Amino acid sequence: MPQHSPQRIARSLTRFGRPPPIKKPLKRNWRTRLPTPHVKIVGREFTPCRLEDHYHATLQEDAMYMTYIHESEPRPAPRQIRLTHDPANPYSRFRHNPPVGGSQLGKKPPPPDTPANVVRLEKIVIHSFMKQAIGGRSNLLGLIMAMRALSGETEKGAGRHAVSGVQIVHGKKSGAPMYDFLAQLVEFVLPRLKDFPGVILPPPAASDHSPSAVSGVVSLGLDPAAMAFFPQIEVNLDSYPRPYGMHVHFVTNATGVGAENRARALLSGFQLPFTRR
Amino acid sequence: MASISRLPCTTRRVPAARSLATVAKPSKPVLSTAVILNRAPILTPSPTVFERAFYAYQQRIRRALHNPFPSEFYFKQGSLLEARFNSEERYRERVAWGPGYVKEEVMSEERKAAEKAAIDQMALQDRSDDKLLPRVHPSDRVRDYQSLDRKGRRNLYLLIRDTGHKTPWEFPRGLAAQDELLHQSAQREFLAKCGNYMDTWIVTRKPIGMFKPRVPEQAPEKITFFFKAHIMAGQVRPADSMKDFMWLTKQEIQTRVTKEYWEGVKDMLSDH
């Protein structure tokens, strides 16, 4: 095996020599005593990402063609079927002025198709629930390490107290870590699962107006057995006290009627299998 | 980012025909369908000089601010693997921050030499003869435009030409039959022109674009609808009349088609 040198990308072009001498010492945080940089440091993409390139080169175009709904002219304004408060009236000016009959969230049509709102993956959220954590906090440690290995981050790693017990919630931001997780899932984990036909689609009779069908989020659950197939966990599986299952939510920018179907079309382009029961 | 004009929503306003008795009614337009067969990139794109500098800078920020790696969780204390990891990590730090930054470990000379010998031994054992394939395929060097392996970083599109009549290069096209849906006609004509020796997938039933060349007065309009398709396996084997085909990138297409055709199709092709 070759030595794991830093990527050629990082080495080429610029030689980072010695840092410039510090003439005026940086301000220090009074509590941690750590130096505070005088510019805002923002971490952005640090490496090219294979799946993201695939999205821009191929998938985005296909997704646009597949989900495009032709509208020959701009949409008419909504019908004013009930009286609403006059916004010029000082009484009602800053008051809540809801439409009659509720927001009709499940019946909202998707926004008009433009190049800017082609369906795209925004983030992947993985979370897991552990009953034993109610008895003892230390039971969480293995799960925290597993989530750290899977997501590559520890920020907001553990301990959000949800409806019942402790839930580990982690939001994976967009970009390389998100696509890395997706690639590991569809290339290492799902093909090796026993009896996994694909993510089960709802029956044809399912409502198109349910909250899940209009939200543009595709969710799936992974058995505890699946955790061992992630390569970063497979290398030292003995270090974890037990395997943990998890929920995975793929959040896309699709909204309106048919949003979940559009999200599924996108994810099947990343080779996530879907099937009917 | 897709451009607006690539959306198949361009509704061109047709000037209303004058309904005078003396003017002959224009005959029905001639409809044909064409398939833009795409070979998706098979290699990742090469980063530009700017991207390389950007990634290098961001990797340094990340190295400075990231969580420390929990090496005790992954390596047994004092194991050889840990020693190898530490030595590699020192090397990476030195590359990122310069030679003076990394502190040498306090260790006796013999121990250091022994560790180095062991690490070298491991490297010898792990060495494999696998070689990375070059990113430039031989077909690029010999300019084999019919190879599907050429230009691995780019989207390629199929252009064909009727060699008998020296027609200009165009996407495989055929006339739509009466009482036939456009996407069915596209599929049928495409297979007839390009042969059934490949796996293809036509992305949508909706056309992705339209091309209407200028025609002389009183002649029927000629309208071509384009459908996008992907090639998964196999290769084009054109029918006898259509002898010549090429796999080209967007820029190469521009130099081979007529100007009017290029203006009609350029927004349907990918810059990637």
UniProtKB/TrEMBL annotation, chain A:
GO biological process: translation
Record-level Gene Ontology MF annotations: structural constituent of ribosome
Record-annotated Large ribosomal subunit protein uL5 C-terminal domain positions: 175-274
Region feature Disordered, mapped onto this chain: 1-28, 86-113
Record's keyword annotation contains Ribonucleoprotein: yes
Matching PANTHER family: 60S RIBOSOMAL PROTEIN L11-RELATED
Protein's UniProt name: 60s ribosomal protein l7
TrEMBL record, chain B:
Ranges for domain Large ribosomal subunit protein mL46 N-terminal: 31-142
Compartments where located: Mitochondrion
UniProt main location, coarse: mitochondrion
Coiled-coil regions listed in the entry: none
Gene Ontology CC terms: mitochondrial large ribosomal subunit
Pfam family, one: MRP-L46
Single Gene Ontology MF annotation: structural constituent of ribosome
The UniProt record lists the keyword Transit peptide: yes
Keywords: Mitochondrion, Ribonucleoprotein, Ribosomal protein, Transit peptide
InterPro entries associated with the record: NUDIX_hydrolase-like_dom_sf (IPR015797), Ribosomal_mL46 (IPR040008), Ribosomal_mL46_N (IPR021757), Ribosomal_mL46_NUDIX (IPR033650)
Family, similarity comment: Belongs to the mitochondrion-specific ribosomal protein mL46 family.
Protein name: Large ribosomal subunit protein mL46
